[in-house]
């Protein structure tokens, strides 16, 4: 079975523009939520599960499939979904994730069309460009 990754993207409208939910990984820079599809799990189920596990967001649904991102490193393709939630999300929060023995992820919002800083993990810099390009083509 071929391994697949999912990327559940959460966006929100801010007075100054559209924002993307990102987090500071304690070991690997700024990232966007991403995870592995488990056996007998649909891409959509995996996206919502990963969103919950990594952010704590409990009630979300898939709004749109944004496309398949092909990362520069060898490995699985990343299936990107725009997700929505009715939960009132804070401007920033910390979520304890059980990945890799337990990690604290520090969540915050990044303006979608702002360039990533050098704090971003390189693979997620490329993913941000993919999201920017595909969101524009599918939503504008």
From TrEMBL:
Nudix hydrolase domain mapped to chain residues: 1-132
CDD domains: NUDIX_Hydrolase (cd04663)
MF-aspect GO terms: hydrolase activity
Pfam families hit by this protein: NUDIX
Keywords on record: Hydrolase
Cofactor(s) named in the record: Mg(2+)
SUPFAM superfamilies assigned to the protein according to its UniProt record, in alphabetical order: Nudix
Organism, as annotated: Acinetobacter sichuanensis
The protein's name in its UniProt record: NUDIX domain-containing protein
